[in-house]
Amino acid sequence: MENDNLQNNLEYACSLFPSVAHACRKIGINRQQFNKYLSGTIRPSRHNMHKICNFFGVTESEILSEPSRFAEIMSVRRAPENSLDASPLSPALKRMRQLSGSLDRYCGFYFGYSYSFSNPGKVIRSLIRLSRKNYDYLWKFVEREKGPNRSFDVYKYEGAAFLLRERINVIMYDALQYSSISQIMLYPSYEASIDCLLGVHIGGPVKRGRKPGAARFLQKYLGSKVDVKLALSQCGLFDPEEIDPKILDLIGNEVHAPWSVLEVDET
């Protein structure tokens, strides 16, 4: 009975999105595998069930409930598409955009470097893109880590960037599971051409559970256009000795006396 409910409820939940493929991409589950859940052939693993529930904003017991009950739950949980305009957050977001300085000169691709939140002692190199759409500056951030079966786990984050009080402020969310929000704060560059941007990355990646963390963060400019496939192939986890020593010196997370907080000096 529960399997029948799950099958019907997944079909209903996916109908609220442009397509099943769209939902699969957002959840981060292979379409072929997801089709087996829709057909009732197999039940999701605990890990995949957690991802599905996080994406649809429900608990496991709710997604296994009677279809009529589940439809009621989804109608309450799912906000209308135009609800942002009526949200009390909307004026604040618009105000930040109005106050933000231009980030046009920073648009392009970067490698990001920091010590990994989830893998002690390792340095992670990520791929970042900052672009402009109308009056907004959009941020895309991709990490990849080699999993236990030697395949790569990919983590994607999307968000917005603002230049406020001589700081580049980035707010981004987990674009696959919608389960976490991270922030990056960077010093702007005053050089004629951009090389590196230095700052702090604050977040709580899924692998850390509920534990938040902070790390010094460096972005190295790659250019306005890159071979994305090639750049992604160069991302991943590295031992510190594999990283340029100059970069390594700038991303160390030592706290120096007399301070008791992690901070970053402007270079």
Automatic annotation (TrEMBL):
Instruction: Write out the GO MF terms.
Output: DNA binding
Q: Which SUPFAM superfamilies match?
A: lambda repressor-like DNA-binding domains
- Read off the InterPro entries from this record: Cro/C1-type_HTH, Lambda_DNA-bd_dom_sf
Q: Entry's Gene3D superfamilies?
A: lambda repressor-like DNA-binding domains
Q: Where is the HTH cro/C1-type domain?
A: 25-63
Return the protein name: Helix-turn-helix domain-containing protein
